[in-house]
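User: My collaborator sent over this chain with a note saying "see what the structure looks like." That's all I know about it. Can you take a look?
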Amino acid sequence: MSDRCLAAPLLHRGPAAALLALLACLLGAGIARGDAPPAVGALAPSFSLPDQSGKVHSLADYKGQWVVLYFYPKDGTPGCTTEACEFRDNIFAFRAQGIVVLGISLDDVDSHRKFATEQHLPFPLLSDATKDAARRYGVLTKFAFLFDMTRRETFVIDPQGRIAKRYADVDPKEHSRTVLADVRALKAQSAPKT
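Assistant: Without extra context I'll predict from the sequence alone. Here is the result:
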């Protein structure tokens, strides 16, 4: 991982925003929880969300493909930057396996554009400004009773659109490699036996 990924841009948003973002990232979870996440084997909740360039992505667009859908709290915070850069650094391995990587947070399109540009992220960051996807995936939370954010959770969605695996306890530094290994194993299990 490059050094610039560790140097998350916090202060340009002001000291109060930087402090709240840092606290959110350090804690990684809020206090209040929303709906329950979908269970492994359940149909993945649908969504249609814009990415950092304004292009709308729907889950239906990826039917027939393996999808890694990772929710993260806030653009530009240390843990979120580490996690995004780890996916970036492994993107060719994901693509070689035919796996799509999508990141989602409540940040707006402009914030995603800036974050993706600063960190050279080659995959879509989806803006869930309405919080609907976060609610439907059960990851919406309220941080310190101050503002809504998403918990750091990941869902692997199989080619039939079902939840194949859920990660509720995510280590940003190791997560990308863990997910890649797990999806390879899931693909091998689901491959037709000859």
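A starting point for your reply to your collaborator: The chain is about 35% helix and 20% strand.
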